[in-house]
Design brief:
The complex is a heterodimer. Chain A is an alpha/beta fold. In chain A, 27% of the residues lie in helices and 20% in strands. The relative contact order of chain A is 0.15. Chain B has helices spanning 3-13, 29-51, 53-76, 87-97, 105-118, 133-144, 172-182, 192-200, 212-224, 231-250, 258-263, 267-274, 285-305, 312-321, 323-329; strands at residues 155-156, 167-168. The chains are: A alpha/beta, B mainly alpha.
């Protein structure tokens, strides 16, 4: 067990105002069961789950209500016991519509029968992966990549490094920070489980240096762990928590373009995901809840709330006392990569890390200007792209050139647009370009 | 429950939905231009001290001319006036700084018209102009009114050599050029007294270029405010230093020393304020370095072998023309891509 400073410096990045003090000191609070839980079948990247319940069915907590549809997909479970009230398409945080199961809790919160594996050390890794798949765990930090997929690398891609991502570089968000403070031992055990599954020799827990208490907590929790175990202290900066950047900061290897972390022998799991794996394996519990940071200056009592998957945003806000001031913008996630909401009638998913309310003075309206070629986006881009040029290509609908100059490598972190003095919608252009090119590719295939 | 409270949030939040990021550094074009203007204040004050009324007259003529022409052009094209971004003010100041003190006001206005109407708005306005507008304005005037553009005030040389007059109405660079052409000798020695004069600005030249001290101060401000990076000025000035040092080492009797070339003419103004013009210079750091080196080489080639005593304007304009090529050639290697180009698999 060692504590080291990150040796490798990521390129670019920005230093937004973090405002983590709003919620960092607030212990995780359990939100009581709301009147309604609307569980989306689209919890993550990849194919949405297929509903397995019908209107009127009674369900128990942890019962499968949507089964994985395809390889990159994860099962969805009932977040509490109750009655299925409706099955209808509902809007998700991204604005897309997906089938959702409405459950009216019966208040019992009765679990299905759970199979625990307290002595997971003797369990076959393959069986552990099955548990992870069956409990519907997916990445809880970002896009929500199904975890069991990450944990089943093909044999020709051996994993030597497991990185537990506790960077939490998004401003405002403190959920992962709280998890590390309050559940350090469980996260450590979860990391040990994942390490066993992968057969990874190295375990690195990466935390930004603006969370010294979390660094201490994780260090204490990991001190008796055998083998090559490191708490890696990252310089605070955005996007230290981005997967590719974190791998580089930790082991100095670049994930090849279009490739996956496993191509450089690494797997990154968010601390929340790691805790979910622990809960799934040791307690047999499917993923039915998560901690969401409800924060922002207009919120009465910002905090870190553990609520069931499928909780309405409006209920989350009510639990935090509603708002005191005017709200100009509501964001699902953090301010750098989160999704702006046009309604609070949206429910949480396994990836809802935060619910952020911005006051009018934090939201600026502007007209974007032509690019003045200042080059700040080039300096800020952690992927070494030239966002200004790509953006101009996409504006001119020259997708071919945009692809040539690597628009597909964009991680949409938002550093370029954060810096742009001309207020150009750079990320919007990137997203537009990427989806256009991907669509073309699919059409070619199909 | 708190139903009503939630409702108000919804109504308000409904209005603004946009793509991430939802945070911004707070910088904008107007503030960058304002910083450039602030950075030009020391040089303006020095100009006022040495050239008095002429400095004020030319600066105001050019600024008003540029802003008015910008507004007129935008209006004629049916676009918003666009003068709030202050870029026309910067162009005006820089154009004035590149004019000799005695030039008539109407010529300064002609320069402003060319700078804004021809060099900027014809191409689509801010962001689209390939050439530095102020330098286009200056070069148009230099070619159209060569006499007015080379009429300087008086300058007392501390250490003249041979038959050269101690008081001259040529610029330091101009005197060197004519002396070398006519008699093949250097007109004066570049001792500490001369150096100090050229550092502070007690010399002949365009109103904004004389004082290296004031321009360096402005440059430091721009660096501190992150309006420029060090790459362009450092590589520009460094190249001039190395180039002139080599010439001087080879033949000190026909070449001025490198520190003369650093302080003479428009190098500081050009390297700090003109070559760093965002729109017309490369976006990559490597590109900025290449741009600076190119400017330095061209400046020295013109100073040494060209028909004009000073080459900063032409050097920067020539490099402006290949900025898109530099951008293409200096794209960074993207994260996760092979270091060396692998054969195309298409």
């Amino acid at each position: 067990m060692a504590r080291t400073k990150a040796q490798f410096k990521i390129n670019g990045g920005v230093h937004p105002s973090y405002h983590k003090g709003l919620a960092a000191a607030k212990a995780i609070a359990d939100m009581p069961l709301p009147a309604l839980l609307r569980v989306s079948m689209s919890q993550h990247l990849g194919a949405p789950a297929q509903p397995t319940v019908a209107k009127g069915d009674t369900v128990k907590r942890g019962q499968v209500i949507g089964e994985a549809a395809g390889f990159i997909s994860a099962a969805v479970h009932a977040p509490t016991s109750g009655t299925v009230k409706a099955l209808a398409p509902a809007e998700t945080a991204t604005g897309a519509k997906a089938m959702a199961v409405d459950i009216e809790p019966d208040g019992e919160d009765a679990w299905v029968e759970l199979t625990t594996h307290a002595c997971w050390e003797e369990t076959d890794p393959k069986q552990l992966v099955e548990i992870v798949a069956d409990t519907g765990i997916c990445g809880m930090g970002g896009a929500g990549f199904p975890t069991h997929v990450k944990l089943s690398p093909p044999p020709e891609k051996p994993i030597d490094t497991l990185i537990i991502n506790g960077a939490e570089c998004e401003p405002y968000l403190t959920a992962d920070h709280r998890l590390m403070l309050e559940y350090a031992d469980q996260i450590a055990e979860g990391a040990a489980i994942i390490r066993k599954i992968l057969g990874a020799e190295k375990l690195i827990v990466a935390i930004e240096d603006n969370k010294p208490d979390a660094i201490d907590a994780m260090e204490t929790a990991l001190k008796d762990m055998k083998g090559d175990v490191t708490v890696l202290v990252l310089e605070t900066g955005y996007p230290q928590g981005a997967e590719k950047q974190q791998i580089f900061a930790a082991i100095g290897k670049e994930v090849p373009s279009g490739g996956l972390p496993m191509d450089v022998g690494a797997v990154v799991e968010n601390v929340g995901t790691t805790l979910a794996v622990w809960d799934a394996v040791v307690n047999g519990k499917p993923l039915t809840e998560r901690v969401t940071t409800v924060t922002g200056f207009p919120v009465q009592t910002p905090g870190n709330v553990r609520s069931r998957i499928g909780t309405l945003y409006s209920d989350l806000l009510d639990f935090c006392g509603g708002t005191t001031g005017e709200v100009a913008k509501v964001i699902s996630g953090g301010p750098m990569m989160g999704f702006a909401q046009h309604s609070l009638d949206v429910t949480t998913t396994k990836t809802t890390s935060g619910l952020l309310f911005l006051a009018p003075d934090q939201v600026s309206e502007f007209t974007s200007m032509p690019c003045i070629s200042c080059g700040r986006c080039v300096v800020a881009c952690p992927m070494y792209l030239v966002p200004s040029e790509i953006s101009q290509m996409i504006e001119a609908e020259d997708y071919e050139t945009a692809e040539e100059i690597s628009v597909l490598d964009c991680i949409e972190c938002g550093c370029c647009a954060f810096e742009c003095p001309a207020h150009r919608p750079l990320v919007q252009h990137m997203k537009q370009g990427k989806s256009h090119i991907m669509l073309k590719r699919r059409q070619k295939k199909g | 429950m708190a139903e009503t409270e939630t409702k108000t949030v919804e109504n308000e939040a409904l209005r603004i939905v946009s793509t991430s990021p939802h945070a911004h550094s707070g910088s904008d074009v107007q503030h960058i231009m304002l910083d450039v203007i602030i950075a030009l204040v020391p040089a303006f004050l020095v100009a006022c001290f040495f050239f008095g009324w002429d400095a004020i007259r030319l600066t105001f003529a050019c600024v008003l001319g540029c802003v008015a022409v910008e507004a007129l052009c935008r209006k004629a094209m049916g676009r918003d006036l666009g003068i709030a971004d202050l870029s026309a003010v910067v162009t005006g100041i820089l154009l004035a700084f590149n004019l000799p003190p005695s030039i008539p006001t109407w010529m300064a206005v002609v320069g402003s018209v060319f700078a804004i109407a021809v060099a900027k708005q014809v191409f689509g306005g801010i962001g689209y102009n390939p050439f530095n507008p102020a330098l286009v304005g200056r070069v148009v005037l230099l070619i159209s009114f060569p006499v007015a553009m080379t009429r300087w005030s008086q300058w007392t040389i501390p250490s003249p050599i041979g038959t050269v007059d101690a008081v001259t109405s040529a610029t330091p660079l101009g005197l060197v050029k004519t002396s070398l052409l006519s008699s093949g000798t250097l007109p004066y020695s570049f001792d500490n007294a001369t150096m100090l004069q050229m550092f502070t600005g007690a010399t002949n030249g365009c109103i904004g270029e004389v004082s290296a001290a004031a321009l360096l101060l402005g440059g430091a401000y721009l660096l501190w405010r992150r309006c420029i990076t060090w790459h362009t000025p450092a590589f520009y000035i460094g190249t001039v230093a190395v180039f002139s040092a080599i010439l001087w080492a080879v033949d000190p009797s026909h070449n001025m020393p490198p520190h003369f070339h650093l302080l003479a003419g428009g190098l500081m103004l050009g390297a700090i304020f003109m070559a760093t013009d965002m729109v017309t210079s490369p976006v990559t750091l490597k590109g900025m370095a290449v741009f600076g080196i190119g400017c330095g080489v061209l400046t020295m080639v013109i100073r040494k072998w060209g028909g004009y005593p000073e080459g900063v304007s032409f050097a920067i304009l020539l490099m402006n023309s290949i900025t898109p090529l530099i951008n293409r050639a200096t794209r960074p290697r993207v994260f996760g891509h092979a270091r060396k180009k692998t054969p195309d698999k298409k």
